[in-house]
Write a structure and sequence with these properties.
10 helices; five-stranded parallel beta sheet; 2 domains; Oxidized Rhodanese, domain 1
């Protein structure tokens, strides 16, 4: 299953009752910016999902900076926006790719079958002169059934087990910038470095001008990783790992998981080793 939808594909579906467009714009460090941008204008009919209020849970001692949300709360939020299990979901952000991809991964974890990131994001849609609006459309409440897809999720225990056993059939990917991976600089977390055994595949390498690269280019980016491997992807807090998740799936990798707590969860355990 592909996870990417082009704006030209979405345009003729804009008024379909079977589609819900999800605005996921956000700015790390300025959490009110995304919703303010949505209020200013958005794709016609879009509903808003906030990274920290909807797509993440409360920060605690463990779990990382953007832990999994409370699933009952998220279920209620989906139902309030008229989203059922059969709804086609198309998520977009400002063009960064990471926030919309977080939505895509999270809904895939819930077991949703038809969820896509809008390639190029809101910037590409608006630049094309496609319909935008200021009205916040209300939808009739629905019922949503969660059927967790554990095959896309890597727990802390699974990552911990990997670091001690280093199985040949598993690859651990760190999605952060190289300087953070190498421990040269760390602007966010209290410790620097990476989880032992990880390889570095910077998430921005799968994108170009806000668009996911073509399949051949995505395959080339991961050419040193066998497609028969189990892949666990992480970043700082489980957000920028998401574009790598989408890119790996687009490139034809079958067994791809996100360690949602990521490095910020790993270092919350004082005894965990860091390379």
């Amino acid at each position: 299953m592909g996870y990417i939808m082009e704006k030209e594909e979405l345009l003729p579906l804009l008024n379909s009752v079977d589609i819900r467009i999800c605005d996921c714009r956000f700015k790390l460090g300025s959490p009110d910016v995304g919703y303010s941008e949505y209020e200013k204008d958005h794709i016609t009919g879009a509903v808003y999902f906030d990274l920290e209020k909807d797509l993440s849970g409360d920060v605690q001692e463990h779990g990382g900076r953007h832990p999994l949300p409370d699933l009952k709360t998220l279920k209620d939020r989906l139902e309030s926006k008229g989203i059922s299990n059969d709804t086609i979901l198309v998520a977009y952000d400002g063009g960064e790719g990471s926030f919309a991809s977080r939505f895509v991964w999270l809904l895939s974890y819930l077991g949703h079958q038809k969820v896509y990131v809008l390639n190029g994001g809101y910037r590409a849609w608006k630049d094309a002169g496609y319909p935008i609006d200021t009205n916040q459309k209300e939808y009739t409440s629905t019922e949503y059934q969660i059927d967790l897809n554990e095959t896309v999720f890597a727990s802390y225990e699974k990552v911990k087990d990997y670091t001690t056993k280093r199985p040949d059939d598993t690859v651990l990917i760190d999605s952060r910038e190289s300087k953070r991976f190498e421990g040269i600089e760390e602007p966010i977390d209290k410790k620097a470095g990476h989880i032992p055994g990880a390889v570095n595949k910077v998430w921005t390498k799968v994108l170009e001008n806000g668009y996911y690269k073509k399949k051949d280019d995505l395959q080339a980016n991961f050419t040193d990783i066998g497609k028969d491997k189990e892949i666990i992807v992480y970043c700082g807090s489980g957000v920028t790992a998401s574009p790598n998740y989408v890119a790996l799936k687009e490139a034809g990798f079958k067994d791809v998981r996100i360690y949602i707590g990521s490095f910020s969860d790993w270092i919350s355990y004082d005894d965990n080793p860091i390379d």
